[in-house]
Amino acid sequence: MKKAVPVVVRNHGQGLEILAFRHPLAGTQLVKGTIEQDEQYEHAAIRELFEESGLVAKLKPKFMGNLSLQFNQQDWYFYLCDISHVLPETWVYHCQDDGGLAFEFFWYPLNQKPNADWHETFQEALAFIRKYFDLEK
Questions:
Q1: Confidence of residue 68 (pLDDT cuts 50, 70, 90)
Q2: Residue 137 resides in a domain
Q3: Which of 10, 53, 69, 119 is most solvent-facing, going by the fewest CB within 10 Å?
Q4: Is the pLDDT assigned to residue 137 strictly greater than 60?
Q5: Is 90 helix (H, G, I), strand (E, B) or coil?
Q6: List of E strands, the chain
Q7: CA dihedral sign, ordered 17, 18, 19, 21
């Protein structure tokens, strides 16, 4: 199964931070979702970002690479998305899919190792993103 992962980052004081959220049933996550049949991957990234966060990304996000997850045999395709306005420190978005759950968005320091609240797949994804930005120690 192929998943699009829209990545939103900001440079904030101590370094790069990535947009993350707390899922009320499944812990801390990054935005991601299934790439529909015949859908362009970059369009899937923009669509998923909007569906899960309400954010509208600029067209033509930058492809960061893909990761084949050992845990669940999924292929994740990462796209660096640009948002044209300044985002708040935290906010809650009521996602229309997933039954209307409230997702709590926040900024997570990329140089910080994830704790146990992050599922194994997202820990692997964070390591991939840290490597992309040359933050692996």
A1: very high
A2: no
A3: 10
A4: no
A5: strand
A6: 2-7, 9-11, 16-23, 27-29, 33-34, 62-68, 75-80, 90-94, 102-109
A7: negative
